[in-house]
Write a structure and sequence with these properties.
heterodimer, A: alpha/beta, two-stranded antiparallel ribbon, 15 helices, B: flat, disordered N terminus
Chain lengths: ~375, ~325
């Protein structure tokens, strides 16, 4: 306490204290504002075309309706001892996440290791796609994509790598057509949609609670009224899972970046990915929310594809299950549940110390996740 | 006879014309008076005769809206706004979603419509207003009478419910922020700021607020309020869809439902074709006819550019 903050009687002078605090706050605000201005100036000079994501060279080798398979151009000699890997993202976000930038790209890391990489692009669903169901996505589109890559692999089985909802698709396909796969890799994939709420950490499982609190009729009305599940709605829900981070990213967040070009470029790439959130086809969303999230049918063995129940114990290929220990969207216990259905000698896990998206975009993920995946393919899925 | 008939028809036509003119005159007069009142040219408060009208207005408010206190800051309709035409922000804000449905609303001078907007009454007598709307919307339907007004009452009632749900949800969040402030005030004070660690104080606030919001999200109070808001919002959205369908129908355009029906039929048809193709393929395989395989692509054959599709060139 400075002397000037005391009154003549020696007691602390609250007015002087308040003035000092006020002065400090203003000083900090001014400094913060200056940092934010530097960031703003950098962003203002950018154009959307300057912010590039997912630009690893690739060729579209298969197309079915809006769905396509891109085959990535090798950057190293392709290893023929490892089966090609087909990466399948979900429908709530775009697969561009796995090649967000040069130095944080799952695709590029795999290519550098000599892995032959194919990626499914679901396209951008419109209202015309509202009646597509899991039958279409698993037994039609994904199956056709897998069959194409199997054909390109001279009829030999391939590795299927499913991410998030795409992982759930992959799990289902692995259960109904295991002969097509040499290995099943998963990342941040829900299988038991209820998980273990008693084990949730404070930021985990809100999505599960929110959907569980809805009635079946609520979900039906949501889909019936909107046709598809709007991407804007799912985006808003995802943002609410990290409330203060979502509220402060455009102010405090930009100030914290202090005009740093690298940090700002990363930020803009992530923003571009988030902004590109497609609508989810309505009927498939109804199944996702009612059949899986609310009724948890997959682990109960009552979820059906083309009229046949999906039996997870049919998965008879090596599995690696990657989950994020601080995932606020998919609780760890929702992913780990798959281990209860797959033989112990076929099943492996990697618990990544990060969040849902960090599995792909953090610097650490390139070693832990991509490195772990390559190591697993070398050990377990040689052809 | 024909002449007599003609006279009868003429007299009837004159009667209708006179009656119609009288009705129009009355309406025009009423509209003129009302317009003057709204624009403040008709004896505003303080002017000779103006206070009588204000008193009458206040008495009317007191009879209609229990708890109404003219002049209070929270009063949705105050006699001064009636006369000076202010208060537009309040009403236009509340009417925004309606403007989404009916763009013409956004061009209206909302201050003039203030006394008639449902929102103005909702805060003070929501249940009474809801009862009134219910009595209209849920009443027996007539074949040729009042259907638009019944539909409008139902729409208004749903909008009222949406506003209430939004307010209740906002209250849950407001309480959460209040708790966050209280927690933060316990942990941090001006003394902490004196250390100069303003950033530390800020980070502490973000942490406290985030923890409180996450905790609140998991309460049944929050979840139920959010569910109610979702339900009420969907009711409003469904009504908007209905209006759009009626508009499309009126202008001889395909409605959303009709397009959806076609999409459903196409989807089902394609599923059938897919199943048949698969059965044919299985049959061919069983007969020893190998399906054609796509060629394996090597690194040497790799080409740049995602836009160049082998599939588009007939490979599929």
């Amino acid at each position: 306490m400075s002397k000037s903050n005391n009154s003549t009687s020696g007691e602390p002078d609250p007015i002087a204290q308040a003035m000092q605090a006020w002065q400090l706050a203003w000083s900090e605000m001014a400094a913060s504002g200056a940092r934010a201005l530097k960031s703003n100036a950098y962003i203002a000079a950018k154009r959307n075309a300057d912010v590039t994501i997912a630009d690893a060279p690739a060729e579209t080798v298969f197309r079915s309706d809006k769905v396509r398979v891109d085959h990535y151009e090798p950057v190293a000699e392709i290893r023929t001892d490892i089966p090609p890997v087909l990466i399948c993202y979900g429908l709530f976000g775009r697969q561009t996440m796995i090649d967000l930038q040069d130095d944080r790209s799952l695709v590029r890391t795999l290519l550098a290791a000599g892995v032959d990489v194919y990626v499914v692009d679901w396209g951008t669903p419109t209202r015309a796609d509202r009646f597509l169901t899991f039958d279409d996505y698993v037994d039609r589109y994904l199956l056709e994509c897998v069959e194409h890559v199997v054909g390109a692999n001279e009829g030999k089985p391939i590795n299927l790598f499913g991410i998030c909802e795409g992982g759930t698709f992959a799990v289902m396909l692995a259960a109904i057509r295991p002969e097509l796969l040499s290995g099943l890799a998963l990342a941040i994939t829900p299988v038991d949609f209820h998980g273990k709420p008693d084990e949730f950490w404070e930021g985990e499982g809100f999505l599960n609670s929110w959907i569980a609190n809805l009635d079946e009729a609520d979900v039906d009305r949501l889909i019936d009224v909107h046709g598809n599940l709007p991407g804007a709605l799912t985006g808003a829900v995802f943002s609410s899972l990290t409330p203060m981070a979502s509220m402060t990213k455009y102010n405090l967040g930009l100030a914290a970046m202090d005009g740093d070009p690298k940090a700002l470029d990363n930020f803009l790439r992530m923003e571009k990915w988030i902004a590109d959130r497609p609508d989810h086809p309505g009927e498939a969303a109804r199944q996702w929310l009612n059949g899986l999230y609310r009724e948890n049918r997959l682990v109960k063995g009552t979820f059906e594809i083309c009229g046949e129940p999906v039996d997870l114990t049919n998965i008879a290929v090596p599995v690696i299950n990657i989950f994020a220990l601080r995932d606020h969207i998919i609780p760890v216990s929702c992913s780990k549940a798959l281990g209860e259905f797959v033989a112990d000698d076929l099943y492996e896990e990697i618990g990544f110390p990060g969040g849902h998206v960090g599995v792909f975009v953090s610097g650490k993920a390139q070693g832990v996740v991509a490195g772990g995946l390559i190591d697993w393919m070398e050990r377990r899925t040689k052809q | 006879m024909a002449q007599q008939d003609g006279d009868a028809f003429t007299r009837m036509a004159e009667m209708w014309a006179e009656g119609g003119k009288a009705m129009m005159d009355v309406q025009a007069h009423a509209a003129e008076q009302f317009r003057d009142a709204m624009s403040g040219t008709l004896n505003p408060p303080g002017a000779v005769g103006g206070d009588d009208l204000v008193d009458t207005w206040r008495e009317l408010m007191a009879a209609w809206m229990p708890g109404y206190q003219d002049g209070s800051g929270a009063a949705p309709i105050r006699s001064d706004t009636i006369w000076n035409g202010k208060g537009g922000d309040f009403f236009s804000q509340m009417m925004n979603p309606m403007a989404m449905t009916m763009p013409a609303f956004s061009q209206m001078d909302m201050s003039k419509a203030a006394p008639f907007t449902m929102d103005a009454w909702a805060n003070f007598a929501p249940e009474q207003l809801r009862d009134i709307l219910d009595s209209v919307a849920q009443g027996p339907r007539f074949a040729d009478l009042a259907a638009p007004w019944m539909d409008a009452a139902q729409t208004s009632r749903e909008w009222l419910d949406y506003q209430r749900a939004a307010m209740e949800f906002a209250n849950v969040l407001r309480n959460a922020w209040g708790r966050a402030y209280a927690t933060y005030a316990q942990d941090w004070s001006l003394d902490d700021l004196k250390t100069g660690d303003v950033d530390g104080a800020l980070q502490a606030w973000l942490k406290v607020a985030n923890a409180e919001l996450l905790s609140t999200q998991r309460t049944s109070e929050y979840l139920d309020a959010q569910k109610n808001l979702l339900r009420a919002g969907l009711d409003v959205k469904a009504r908007m869809n209905e209006a759009a369908e009626q508009w499309a129908e009126a202008w001889q355009m395909p409605t959303r439902s009709e397009v959806d029906d076609m999409a459903k039929q196409l989807h089902d048809l394609r599923s059938t074709v897919r199943r048949l193709k698969r059965e044919m393929k299985d049959l061919a395989t069983a007969q020893g006819v190998e399906p054609k395989k796509p060629p394996r692509r090597t690194s040497a054959s790799a080409r740049k550019g995602k836009g160049k599709s082998a599939a588009e060139k007939g490979a599929v």
